[in-house]
Amino acid sequence: MKKLFAILLVAILTLTATAFAATYTYKDDIAFKYNEEFFEISMDDHTDDEDLVILTGKEATWGDTFIRIHLRDLDDGEAFPTMENFTAMPDASEVTQGEWNGFKDVFMYTVENVEGGMEYYFIAPVTDDDGEVEDILTVNIGVSEVDDEGVAMNRDDLISDVLDTLKVDD
Description:
seven-stranded antiparallel beta sheet; 2 helices
């Protein structure tokens, strides 16, 4: 009986979360789903070659929370960064390279921000049909330190839900 109750509870929570999910597509380049109850969306259309979408957390108990998704074309002759490009990073930031969210060769690092929260950076190459890098996707996630572990876990789960649905098709 407990197992049946647990399955039913998970199904109800999944349906509730899905009911609030909105799909966002920007210029057919960036697509993701987010919960409109918890995030407010804004965008900054820089140029034809550069887009920035920002999700800001609405929940006051989260403190300052944001997800910035920045996609820009590589300029002619510009190459995707290498590990050597990150040598000027602050000592507290260890830059690693690996797979993230379905992208390969992604640079990842964390920086403590001035307010005591953390910012997480993911810099991913976006390739064309021939496998050539044509765009750079930068995802920057900023979170404040939250005393309530349950609130922090809920916030982090909602951020993960957005990132799990992020697709780039340029």
